[in-house]
Structure formats: C-alpha cells, structure tokens
Write a structure and sequence with these properties.
Order of helices and strands: HHEEEEHEEEHEEHEHEEHEEEEEHEEEHH
CATH topology of one domain: Outer membrane lipoprotein wza fold like
CATH class of one domain: Alpha Beta
CATH architecture of one domain: Roll
Structural class: alpha+beta
Helix content: 10-25%
Distance between the termini: 164 Å
Largest sheet: 5 strands, mixed
Oligomer: single chain
Strand order of the largest sheet: 7-6-10-8-9
Number of helices: 10
Strand content: 25-35%
Shape: elongated
Radius of gyration: 44 Å
C-alpha cells in the first residue's frame, strides 16, 4: 500500500491541474456571460444601465458666452445638442442632437418637433415625452451644445460670402470677419430673415452706445446687406498727421468731436490747435475753416468736407550752437532752454542779442523769451569769436598780410 500512495497523489495533482485550466479557458472564452456583461455598458445616446464612467462629455469648441442662454428667447434649431438625464429605478443618460428637419428624436420614447419653439418649450415637451414611460423619477433636459449654421454677408464688405456662426453670435461677430469697407454705411445694415422679415441695424450706435438692439443675434437663413455710401452724400476725407486717413462715413449732424472720438487716431506730432477744413460752398467755391480742439464738439460736419490735421509746428534753433535744427514745441520753455536742447553754446557763440522771430514777423530778444510754435531762434557769434575765432577778423588780416608780404618779396627779386 505504501508503494502505491505516491503514485496516487501524483494522479490527483495532474487531474486538479487539468480541471483548473479548463475553468480558466471557459472564463476567457468570447461570448460567455462574463464577457457579455462587460459589453452591456451604456454608451452615450443609448439606453441601458447607468454607468458614471461612461457618461457623455460636454461638446468641445463651444463659443465664449457673453451672457447666459435665455430659455425663453433662444430658438432651438437643427444641430442643437441636448442631454436628457433620467434618475429612476433604471438610470439613463441620453445625448441627442436636433435633426436637419428640426425633430429631436428620443430613442425608445418618442420625438419632439422643435420648429418654431423656444428652448423652454422644447425642454417641457421632451420631459413630457419621457414621462409617458418614466412616471416615478426625475427627468432633466439640458442644452449642452450650440448649433452652427451659415449666414450670407454682402455689399460694402471686403470679403462677401457665407460665414459660419454659432446660434448666439451677433451681427458684430460676422461683420468683424467680413471687414467693412471705408464707405460702408454701418448705421444702416439690413438683415433679411428666412421668413422675409427685414431688420435694420445701426452697428455704429452699438459700438459707441452699447445697445444690443442694434447688434441682433444671427439666425439660420439670415442675409446681411451692408449698403455703400458716397463721398458726396455720406462721407468726409481725412488727411495729414493721422494714422486713419482716407474716407470716413459720417452721420447726419455729426460733429468733428464725435468723429474724432470714434475713428481718428492722431500721430504724436499732430497740431490740434490748427485743424483746417475745406468746405464746398453752394456756389461752387471752397471755404477754408481753421478750428482748434476746443471747437471740435461744436463744429458740425458736412458731406464732402476735407479735414486736414497739420503736423505740429516746430521750433528752429540756428547759429552758434552744438546741434542746430528743429525741435518739438514744449509749452513754457524759454529761448535759453531751447539753446540747451540744441547742445548749448559753442565757444564762439553768445546769448547777447539772442534773436527770436515769430511767424508773424515779430522779433524779440533775450534768452528769457517764452517760445511759441513756429518760432525761430538765432544765436549770434560773440565779439571774441569775431576777433579770434577760426574765421575771425585777425585771422583774415594775418592771412592777407602774409600774402602781401610774399608778393612784395617776389617782386623785389
């Protein structure tokens, strides 16, 4: 008996190993109940058992919101994305999109025709459809993705054509992409809706007043027309020391101050004390008007006005200074301080009889004279410089005497 006991134990061990391998193979075989249970997890947009790890993600690439979506005024349309969350004995989460025809299909429950409905109405109807089968539980219907569609822009824009917009985008967003031309009438933009309704939008007032009434939300099927203006009826011409030269549309009774605030970008050297407007008179002649910045808000513009912003008149320093030239006008500076700006006096220069000449021809003397725009400062040569400088009288006399003596010596020989 003792001889056969080890053999018996070996046989039992082999049988146990075979049984274990058989069970493991059964577990890993495709199509078994264990594997099928792992395949029955709920996928987004499908019915099934609730699994938090498999819940749908919110859509990416959504626009930045200026304000929250108002359920009472947001019109639902094709492409809007919804999440229906059902909390009941059998939890469920459905991610759904409104179809091209405007229907919101809820698999296993029914559908909602969203045409002409606001967001709040779609939410109510979708919840009612689900509650026909889910009587005891909580049903949430949420808008999680905004639809995109195309609108057509044409007229006085640089790039007419179709533009992709989100359902919350406004007129300003589309116009920024299309880019207005110089003579575009941005205060008289026309939006034709799909149902034939025409809306007039004053984008100029929106930009400087902030009223969203003049910056409507785009809708599917919108056609945006930007009219052209003309120089004779709607525009002025800007030129001179500014960065925004060219034609600019004006409104009726708009002042130069209003135009200046909304569109004119001056250069650093512009002289706002002397702005010239050339205006065409009824008899065909031209009138030249000179105004300064204090009059901008009272000066009413007219179409065909030509507005010129002159460069600021500089102060000129000439004569015996280190760096003669033209310098920017600095209010309150004296002639002596401008001499310092010009590098100071040369050794042969003097502040005596320092001469300042005004634009009107007036001549003043002295380093304490307060300088005005357009003044010319002249620094004269000193008496010492006149006598002993590089081109002094003594140098001239010495040179002349040397020449005379040389000539005399030659003639004697």
């Amino acid at each position: 008996m003792n001889v056969h006991k080890p053999s018996f134990l070996i046989i039992l061990a082999v049988l146990g190993l075979i049984f274990t391998q058989s069970v493991q193979a059964q577990i890993n075989r495709p199509g078994t109940n264990t594997s099928q249970q792992g395949q029955q997890r709920t996928q987004p947009g499908q019915q099934g058992e609730f699994d938090p790890l498999m819940q749908p993600m919110f859509p990416l690439n959504q626009p930045a919101l200026v304000e929250r979506v108002n359920p009472e005024s947001y019109a639902v349309g094709p492409g809007d994305e919804f999440l229906i969350n059902i909390i009941a004995t059998r939890p469920m989460a459905l991610t759904l999109k409104v179809g091209p025809a405007g229907d919101l299909l809820i698999p296993g429950f029914g559908s909602v025709d969203t045409n002409g409905l606001m967001l709040s109405e779609v939410q109510e109807q979708a919840e009612a459809v689900v509650r026909q089968q889910v009587r005891d539980g909580v049903v949430h219907v949420s808008l999680i993705g905004l639809r995109r569609f195309k609108v057509f822009v044409y007229g006085a824009v640089v790039q007419p054509g179709y533009y992709d917009v989100f359902a919350i985008d406004r007129l300003q967003d589309v116009i920024e992409e299309a880019q207005l031309r110089q003579l575009a009438l941005s205060f008289d933009i026309q939006i034709t809706r799909e149902n034939g309704e025409v809306i007039n939008a004053d984008l100029m007032s929106y930009r400087f007043g902030g009223s969203t009434k003049n910056n409507p939300v785009m809708q599917m099927g919108d056609r945006v027309y930007v009219p052209f203006g003309t120089f004779d009826e709607n525009a002025v011409l800007l030129s001179g020391a500014i960065n925004t030269f060219g034609y600019r549309i004006i409104r009726e009774n708009e002042t130069l101050g209003e135009l200046f605030n909304r569109t004119i970008e001056i250069r650093g050297q512009a002289d706002l004390e002397n702005v010239f407007i050339t205006r065409l008179q009824p008899d065909g002649t031209q009138r030249l008007i000179n105004i300064n910045i204090t009059e901008f808000d009272q000066f009413v513009l007219q179409p065909r006005d030509q507005i010129q912003f002159l460069a600021e008149k500089q102060v000129a320093v000439h004569g015996y200074v280190g760096a003669p030239g033209s310098f920017s006008y600095i209010p309150g500076y004296t002639a002596g301080e401008y001499i310092t700006l010009a590098g100071g006096l040369l050794p042969v220069g003097t502040l005596r009889n320092l001469k300042v000449t005004r634009e009107d021809g007036t001549v003043l003397y002295g380093e304490s004279v307060r300088i005005e725009r357009g003044d010319v400062i002249e620094v004269r040569q000193s008496l010492r410089g006149f006598l002993v400088g590089d081109t002094s009288v003594l140098a001239i006399v010495t040179s002349t005497a040397s020449i005379v003596l040389s000539a005399y010596a030659i003639l004697r020989n």
